Amino acid sequence: MPVGLVVVSHSRALADAAVELARGMLPGRELAVGVAAGDVDGGLGTDATAIADAIAAVDSGDGVVVLMDLGSAVLSAETALELVDDDVRERVVLSPAPLVEGLVGAAVTAAAGADRDRVAAEALRGLAPKQAHLGG
Amino acid sequence: MTVVDAAALTAWVREFARLVHEQRDTLTQLDSAIGDADHGANLDRGMTAAVAALEATPPDDPAAALKTVATTLIKTVGGASGPLYGTFFLRAAGALDVGTDPTHHGRALAAALRAGYDGVIARGKAERGDKTMLDALGPACDAFDEALAAGKALDEALGAAAEAAAQGRDATEPLIARKGRASYLGERSAGHLDPGAASAALLVEAAATALAGRG
């Protein structure tokens, strides 16, 4: 099974659009990606219990890479790790990658069947193509 | 009499919720100066939900009461105070061991508060002086521990903790924020009380009020 991905954002619309963009790079390919975004009322916010549920839903035993936007998304993702089972926690990587670029890199490698550490590494170098192009 | 039981901690949570609701606009006003103007509304929503959860399923033991508050705040607050206060209550619940001897309840509560405080440090990667809730919680834990070590009753020790938390909150005014949204402001964050320290002082004040007369 491919490595699972979870997208954590303050905004449901932002997360869904990021996933749509990543899926656009993978026509016809399977990808296990979950979204945990927005607060309980559909407003801006993050919810660690929703993140924990999303991790459990995409975890096939081969690992999960979590990508997030900023601020409370980071704190909630870390808190979510306190809420999942011990064996699941060991398979999860919280990626410090930029959300959009990291997700695209992770999605392409995950769909190609790479292992968790490879997927996480690809997410982390998500800015590299843009930096190389713009000379930043 | 049992000093720190589920009813006592439920009373604490209820009093904290009441104070947060009463000071909701003040907290939001503080947050609008240096943050994103949602602290009062977010914490009020979370604590209202926490009280409702405790009413819906009354906890059997004090640790269960704190665990319910933790998961409810994590689920309903939305902003950074959700995981931060959620972690505080989660770690406090994990550390709370009241045992059977009521004379140890004060120390058990102090150990739980210290575990919660350490949890907030770990979660936020912050330290005292960063202009955060730690600036109220840290002095409160110290004052509580010192008062109990000096042989003071729970009442008096919690009173000392509340006073230390209020002083710690007031001392955040000149500080430059080093964590969270306020840190983007750099020196412009000085001259304002920290909203997280303000709500944390209410948490300790609520404990002193709700547990008064219990020892």
TrEMBL record, chain A:
Signal sequence interval, chain numbering: none
GO cellular component, one term: membrane
EC numbers for this chain: 2.7.1.121
Boundaries of every PTS EIIA type-4 domain copy: 2-136
Highest taxon in the source lineage: Bacteria
GO biological process: glycerol catabolic process; phosphoenolpyruvate-dependent sugar phosphotransferase system
InterPro entries linked to this entry: DhaM, DhaM_N, PTS_EIIA_man-typ, PTS_EIIA_man-typ_sf
Pfam families: EIIA-man
Catalysed reactions, as listed in the record: dihydroxyacetone + phosphoenolpyruvate = dihydroxyacetone phosphate + pyruvate
Function text: Component of the dihydroxyacetone kinase complex, which is responsible for the phosphoenolpyruvate (PEP)-dependent phosphorylation of dihydroxyacetone. DhaM serves as the phosphoryl donor. Is phosphorylated by phosphoenolpyruvate in an EI- and HPr-dependent reaction, and a phosphorelay system on histidine residues finally leads to phosphoryl transfer to DhaL and dihydroxyacetone.
UniProt subunit comment: Homodimer. The dihydroxyacetone kinase complex is composed of a homodimer of DhaM, a homodimer of DhaK and the subunit DhaL.
Listed name of the protein: phosphoenolpyruvate--glycerone phosphotransferase
Organism, scientific name: Geodermatophilus obscurus (strain ATCC 25078 / DSM 43160 / JCM 3152 / CCUG 61914 / KCC A-0152 / KCTC 9177 / NBRC 13315 / NRRL B-3577 / G-20)
Organism taxonomic ancestry: Bacteria, Bacillati, Actinomycetota, Actinomycetes, Geodermatophilales
From TrEMBL, chain B:
Pfam families (alphabetical): Dak2 (PF02734)
Organism the protein comes from: Geodermatophilus obscurus
GO biological process: glycerol catabolic process
NCBIfam families: dha_L_ycgS (TIGR02365)
Residues of the DhaL domain: 7-209
Highest rank taxon of the organism: Bacteria
A single MF term (Gene Ontology): glycerone kinase activity
Keyword annotations: Kinase, Transferase
Name of the molecule in the record: Dihydroxyacetone kinase DhaL subunit
rRNA processing listed as a keyword: no
High-level lineage: Bacteria, Bacillati, Actinomycetota, Actinomycetes, Geodermatophilales
GO CC annotation terms, alphabetical: cytosol
InterPro entries for the chain: DhaK_L_YcgS (IPR012737), DhaL_dom (IPR004007), DhaL_dom_sf (IPR036117), Dihydroxyacetone_Kinase (IPR050861)
Keyword Kinase appears in the UniProt entry: yes
